[in-house]
Amino acid sequence: MKPLVTRRILKEYPLTLNKIADRFVAIDFETDGRDCENGRVIEIGACFFENGQPVKTFSSLVHSVDYLPPFITELTGITIDMVRNAPAEPGVWKRFVEFLDGALEGQEIIVAHNAAFDTSFLKASLERLGYSGTIRYLDTVDLSQKLLPYMSGHALNKVCAELQIELENHHRALDDAVACGNILATLMNDEDSLKKYTKSAVQKLSKQEIEIASAIFSMQEADWGILRHSNAVVTLYVKGLPVFSFVARSSKFYFLADADLLEHYPWAWTFANQKECEYGLFRIPIDTIDQLGYFRPYVIKKIEQAMETPFEDAGRHNEWKYGIAKQTYKKIKPHIHEVGLSSTCSKRKGRPVGFARQLACEENRLFDRIDYEHGLVYKFYLTRAIDARKQHQYELAHTFLRQAYRNGLRTAEMFVEIANFYKHHHKPEKEVEWLLKGAQCMNAINLVKERQLLLLRAAKLMDRQNSENKSDRK
């Protein structure tokens, strides 16, 4: 199995942030200026903090390249001779992995300033050198933006200046890592800033939203949490796992559901907005809260599954225990009341979403990650097909797509390109067929987002075809 490093960002900063991040490791990488897939780390700096104090550090240049662009030397002061005389890359990373220890199993939070950059290099480098792991990380750029919103910029040196944190050698890995750790240590003890952020994050729910949530809470006792997102979607959680989402609109509301639910509980539905579509969701219009009784078995099953699912690690448990969702639930709990739901209701006549059952493994065999990864070698055929299509050379594009498919390439992007070919030739049946075939492959290897995007395009196309057929009959 190919090495895999998974990443999960922590983006909630409750008053008890110090309990979530009582022990963490701050990291910083200096690189050769290229992206994480092609570039290399030339210097590693890291520092473990316990109870807000630095306790041990790691620092090393890395002999990973034999050329450095002049602007990197100008920015960091690191010359190509310094890199060439540094320890070899495999040995440095072996020592760094030993230093990180439990942080690569999600036990401690990894902290960085602009963490998406550093953790992308961490992930790419570890996987390339044969290591797997799980990373929980926090970005002090995001933290400082939320807790210090009055600042005009949140670069590392600016935040350090604002918080009076020493930063002697900016753009050298260890100095930047220690400064980053000190930013977190300072801000997580800043009660005033945390209170202001928490007050804005724990949003007030309307009476209608509390009434709907009460109906779901009444279905079964559980370890509940609730969040109202910036897009007005309210999500109810059990042990950190989402079990029910809705959007309240004046007198009615919309329950967000996936295609699998609609297979078992047919109901009228509409397409959601683009963001919801990316997660494979449909909107189900609900006229009265009593109609939720129809979905009770589904919701209870989701609650039970969530309650039976153990937390991945102690860190995930702490994030849930002290997170904003739990705090919001505690805040509205005095307003929650028992809501009795009828076992029978007048449900809306639903259109079927007739493709969820078609998700079987391709050619009745197990299509797995190894098959998927082997096929990626032939992605250059897809690139050529896209270039040909952009130049309106559709038959040439189709030739390249056939070559890609025959050699085992099975990416969602490839299936979309095949669907685009049949769309150009006005063959909607073939377009749907290939979108569903792509969804089969994505389903087999648990690429949920890719699967749902293919399904939703197929669903929209099928829905359009049904509407056109009805118009023709009239």
Question: What brief labels describe this structure?
Answer:
21 helices; flat; alpha+beta; 12 strands; six-stranded mixed sheet; single chain; six-stranded antiparallel sheet
What does this protein structure show overall?
The chain has helices at 17-20, 70-76, 80-84, 89-100, 115-128, 140-147, 156-163, 173-187, 191-201, 207-217, 259-264, 274-278, 296-308, 314-322, 324-332, 369-375, 379-390, 394-406, 412-424, 428-444, 448-473, and strands at 5-9, 23-31, 41-50, 53-61, 109-112, 133-139, 224-228, 233-238, 241-249, 252-258, 270-271, 281-286. The relative contact order is 0.09. The longest helix has 26 residues, at 448-473. The chain contains 21 helices and twelve strands. Strands 1-6-5-2-3-4 form a six-stranded mixed sheet, with helices on both faces. Strands 7-8-9-10-12-11 form a six-stranded antiparallel sheet. It is flat. Helix 19 (412-424) runs antiparallel to helix 20 (428-444). Residues 355-364 have low confidence and may be disordered. A hairpin with a 2-residue loop joins strand 9 (241-249) and strand 10 (252-258). By secondary structure, the protein is of the alpha+beta class.
